[in-house]
Design goal:
The protein has twelve helices and 36 strands. By secondary structure, it is α/β, with parallel strands linked by helices. Strand 16, helix 6 and strand 17 form a beta-alpha-beta unit.
Length: 683
């Protein structure tokens, strides 16, 4: 028990006053003369016992009345044993209202967000006019970072609306604690009104501040049912006009009921082009597929749509892609090969490729920056300058292909290969060997062969270099010769790939350049060099978008514009690893189609969607919340379980403890009444 005004305890000394009166008995007696007192002596003896009992009872009643009156003025309060908060003076109160999409769910009282706003007003009503209030939501707006009066706080609560912003609870609580920590008010309290979604309400990760009381008011929906489109992806990395495309998507059912018959519609460039039916069991997901022909060259905007209630924000998934993509190839050929060779012929005849061709004695290293693939075709030497540029290119995520020359300088090659962590080249082997095996486990040729026949006619190799691998080199074989030597291998590092042929690709060493495997092999190398561009991004997040490096040399900034809309954002731009990264800094907060442009020239199509974190409606129960509090031994963290009625009294008790002064006032009146009754009726 604590006292709001402990100084009044000294007034208990007043209890001595009725005791002193009783001991000294200041009453005056009046003499009455009788003719015969023999009969009165016996009556006097009996009356003295009754009078003494009455006086003792009256004394006790008076002492208790004074003691209870003193206790009422001292205002005793029963506090929780874990509470260390001082409750004197004005209070600083921070109220968090979860306004995420999951709060669109309903229970018998209505939408959860409206219930949260009502309860927030009841919390405000429980405090005094001198207290200060902070109202905070997931939006983290400037108006959330200041104290408000009681009336202004109620107005702010009325303005709260559903938002696409997604915050984990630990971030919100840190923001509340930091704000309250800057206040000079000694008594600080935090309230959290949320549905306690498991994906975002990470109570176990909070840092509990024992100087600030945290009270959680969990809001529960009637049913937890939501079916939504989670993600989509193409089966192949390259989309081109006139080709059949296969688009896959995940449909998730977070609910307790199975969906037997559902339909998803595919829209492309504002036209519905396909429909897919599906069924999905409770608390599971299913994959659906759309097959369509890409009829438009260039930028394409599409969406997948289903129907589901009452949560609707995640029923449509936007995506965007470019069906006109060029692979930038930089081909560096040896002196003996010249500029016209089998590789240059391959890339020149296909509009898919953008070719820059150089001889080894006249290399323009600046061309590496705008390239996706650099092919070194039978160079005699690998100079230190060339290797430095190649290392920089690889670290920037580019793909490199090494084809050694028949008369290669092995010293320079091996020095360069050691830097790139590739196997070293040994002596040239003149054995006539066939390609014996295609390592399908590497998935390099995925989608090229429907099936691999054991009697397949594979390339012939008459001269190749032995590859010497050490234990610390990660090198994956793709094509194997009959003696188990690798003809083609791959070394991967983060987002870059380095390919190595062990044989010079000329007619004296192999017929590979005239074999049917030649074209798909180099196509796969080039397709693998393309960086996968996300089909969509999330709104209200700091999205990082990579664009071609040609943007770096232009003074005009890039813009991210909404298609057929008014939103126009200039993102932060940074030049990183031969590319330019654009940072949206949470400036895009609406879903739909966008484009990256410069000088009204479109660079990249974009699609933005609401985050699917809010789609998982599984929430922490009250028992689970209490279990976390108990396991983590959190001090000053409470859960109000019953919020169906007016919670003002519960808030008062939680904020100030259970006040007992009213009880002591009642007891004072009872003891005074008892004293009066004893004096009047007990003769």
């Amino acid at each position: 028990m604590m006292f709001v005004y402990p100084a009044f305890i000294w007034a208990l000394a007043a209890v001595a006053i009725p005791i002193i009166i009783h001991l000294f008995n200041f009453r005056r007696y009046k003499k009455v003369y009788f003719t015969n007192v023999r009969f009165l002596k016996e009556l006097q003896h009996q009356s003295k016992s009754k009078s003494r009992l009455r006086e003792i009872l009256v004394l006790i009643a008076r002492c208790l009345a004074i003691a209870c009156l003193v206790m009422a003025f001292a205002q005793p309060v029963i506090k929780d044993k874990n509470t260390t908060v001082i409750n004197t003076g004005a209070k600083a109160v921070s109220i968090y209202i979860d306004n995420s999409f999951s709060m669109e769910n309903v229970n018998k009282q209505g939408p959860l967000l409206e219930i949260a706003k009502t309860k927030a007003k009841e919390i405000i009503k429980a405090f005094g006019n001198g207290d200060k209030f902070q109202i905070i939501t997931n939006d983290f707006e400037g108006k959330h970072q200041r104290f408000n009066s009681k009336e202004d706080a109620v107005s702010l609560v009325d303005e709260v609306k559903i938002s696409s912003a997604v915050r984990v609870f630990s971030d919100v609580l840190n923001r509340q604690n930091e704000f309250l920590g800057s206040s000079s008010l000694p008594n600080k309290k935090v309230y959290a009104l949320s549905d306690a979604q498991k994906t975002t309400f990470n109570l176990e990760e909070i840092k509990n501040d024992t100087s600030i009381k945290l009270t959680i008011l969990p809001l529960k929906a009637n049913e937890i049912n939501n079916i939504y489109i989670d993600s989509c992806w193409f089966e192949t990395p390259l989309q081109q006009k006139g080709f059949i495309q296969k688009l896959h998507a995940n449909v998730v059912n977070y609910g307790n009921s199975n969906l037997e018959i559902g339909s998803a519609k595919l829209f492309l460039n504002k036209q519905q082009i396909a429909i897919s039916s599906f069924s999905v069991e409770a608390n599971s997901k299913t994959e659906i597929q759309f097959t369509f022909e890409c009829k438009k060259e260039g930028v394409n905007y599409g969406s997948i749509k289903i129907e589901d209630y009452p949560i609707t924000f995640d029923d449509e998934l936007y995506f965007a892609f470019n069906s006109k993509v060029n692979v930038a190839v930089c081909l560096v050929s040896g002196k003996e090969q010249g500029l016209d060779n089998s590789l240059s012929t391959l890339f020149k005849t296909d509009s898919l490729f953008k070719l820059n061709s150089f001889l080894e004695q006249a290399i323009d290293y600046s061309a590496f920056k705008g390239s996706d693939v650099v092919i070194l075709n039978q160079l005699v030497d690998l100079s230190s300058g060339l290797m430095a540029e190649l290392l920089k290119f690889r670290d920037g995520g580019g793909s490199i292909v090494f084809i050694p020359a028949q008369n290669a300088n092995l010293v320079s090659y091996n020095e360069g290969f050691s830097t790139l962590q590739l196997p070293n080249l040994a002596v040239l082997d003149s054995s006539n060997l066939k390609v014996d095996k295609i390592e399908l486990a590497s998935k390099f040729y995925a989608g090229v062969f429907e099936k691999v026949n054991d009697r397949l006619n594979l390339p012939l190799v008459t001269k190749h270099y032995k590859l010497i691998k050490t234990s610390n080199i990660d090198f994956e074989s793709i094509l194997l010769l009959q003696n188990t030597d690798a003809l083609l291998g791959l070394s991967k590092k983060s987002n870059s790939s380095v390919y190595l042929f062990s044989a010079p690709l000329n007619e004296k060493c192999t017929n590979f350049s005239k074999h049917a495997l030649f074209v798909p092999t180099f196509y796969q190398i080039c397709f693998g060099s393309l960086k996968s561009v996300p089909l969509s991004y999330h709104v209200s997040s700091n999205v990082v978008i990579s664009v071609k490096n040609d943007l770096a040399s232009v003074d005009q900034p890039a813009h991210i514009k909404q298609v057929n809309g008014q939103l126009d954002v200039i993102p932060e731009a940074r030049s990183i690893n031969n590319a330019v990264s654009l940072f949206t800094q949470r400036q895009i907060n609406i879903p739909g189609f966008f484009e990256v442009s410069r000088n009204n020239s479109l660079l990249l199509p974009l699609a933005f969607n609401y985050s699917r974190k809010e789609s998982n409606l599984l929430c922490l129960s009250n028992d689970e919340l209490k279990k976390i509090i108990e396991e983590k031994n959190f001090k000053n963290v409470d859960v109000i379980e019953d919020i169906s009625g007016d919670i003002t009294s519960q808030i008062l008790q939680g904020a100030e403890g259970k006040k007992l002064w009213k009880i002591f006032i009642i007891l004072t009146l009872l003891f005074i009444g008892l004293e009066i009754a004893l004096l009047r009726f007990l003769k």
